[in-house]
Amino acid sequence: MLVVNHPDRSQYLNLPSLTETPEFLKLSPLQRRFVVFYAAHGLETGEYNALLAVRDAIGESKPNLQVRASQLLNNSRVRRVLDLHFKRSELQVLLDSIPRAAKKSNKLGLLSPAVGKALIAFEKFVQEQGEKP
Hints:
Blueprint: E1 3-5, H1 15-18, H2 22-25, H3 29-45, E2 47-49, H4 50-58, H5 65-74, H6 76-85, H7 90-107, H8 113-128
Antiparallel strand pairs: 1-2
Helix pairs in contact: 3-4, 3-6, 4-5, 7-8
């Protein structure tokens, strides 16, 4: 899994505060273990590594760790808790979800190319306006 280096982690929500949030408490035990290891390792080293986190959460002997790590990272509840950890604004979360939603909707035939282009244009517009997400 991708390792993301975060040199300045001082602004992130600390682990004790994160684990007390209502969003964290809604996670399953496996999701909680994953988030705790992912955030703790990231805060300690600056490297957020989902594969290491899922290995810790479910153990070394399980097959398909990469698939499971991807599933956990893409779970909406897990993403919400990680957004809290990284202190990402609702606007940033929305902007980051536009390309994914457009791609998925287009694959399913639910989104016309024109609507997809409008969403991308909206994202660029917001970024050009200097909005601090």
